[in-house]
Amino acid sequence: MIVEVKNLVKRYNKLVALDHLNLAVEEGEIYGLLGPNGSGKTTAINCMLSLLKYDKGSIEIFGKPMRPDAYDIKKDIGIIMQNVAVFDELTVYENISYFCSLYIKDKKEVKRLTEEAIDFVSLQDFTKFMPKKLSGGLLRRLNIACGIAHKPKLIILDEPTVAVDPQSRNKILMGIKKLNENGATIIYTSHYMEEVEQLCSRISIIDKGKVIATGTKDELKNMISLGEKITVEAYNLREEQLDEMLHIPNISHVDYTENQLVIRSKKGKNNLIHVLDYLQRHEITFGKIYTEMPTLNDVFLEITGKDLRD
Length: 310
Ligand SMILES: Nc1ncnc2c1ncn2[C@@H]1O[C@H](COP(=O)(O)OP(=O)(O)OP(=O)(O)O)[C@@H](O)[C@H]1O
What we know:
six-stranded mixed sheet; 34% helix; Rossmann fold; 2 domains; four-stranded antiparallel sheet; 310 residues; Alpha-Beta Plaits; 29% strand; alpha/beta; binds adenosine-5'-triphosphate
């Protein structure tokens, strides 16, 4: 186990930001913390790193209790926080080199690792730039390079793609995958379900400071009753046909607006075949047809009754 958080409680005066939060991150995982803004992700990370005092619970990292002065643990952790934390008066190269030298004493090794980190985030053309001259996406990449140059075993990224252009976002996501392939365990917080789905091997969904569900994306989707959503471009459907479709096995909702028929099904096999069969038997003209599986937002919605983005 790389990180084990048990029954963590953190209050800001009367507000309970973490309410008996439990997490267990195993070696080699990309572990996602998915939750809406204000659900407690940053507070959890700050507690894990001993940057914030908490009221109750325990935190172990690499099998040892985490404390503010646990430098032997901290040297193996790379942190990339939401707010970019670099020195404005240092160049891109100097920033990365400085953060790396906090952990690595050998100067030649610092140089080698700095250059490797620059290549890794593709900032080769910007090494002499001051941070203020970088775009938002490049600045995020610099922030990441500063956090990972010393090759930590555990890398924690708190919403690293907020307000980042799509090209930099892709580079960041691919970079995180590569860091993981090279052996690092990753904790990744986000309120973007698509990113978490794409990237993470296991996910904890967090709401109001509590973990409400944990699993792989497929395990999470299997927790809910919703099956696939079938969308059909269909013409001249009558009210009674829509009512009849509700009697197709497993179908729970039917909606028809502007020639778009949207059918929601419960879990089960052959839902699409049954729908197609109905359309053909009733000689209903139809065009494009596609199905979508439930998303992590559907999971969040079914458990909490609200959208992730609310
Ligand atoms: N220093 C603070 N003082 C008082 N309340 C705080 C403080 N920091 C966070 N909170 C509150 O604690 C709760 C959890 O906030 P936190 O920032 O951990 O959530 P989050 O999931 O990381 O959201 P975001 O992505 O918006 O940062 C929120 O209600 C927030 O308003």
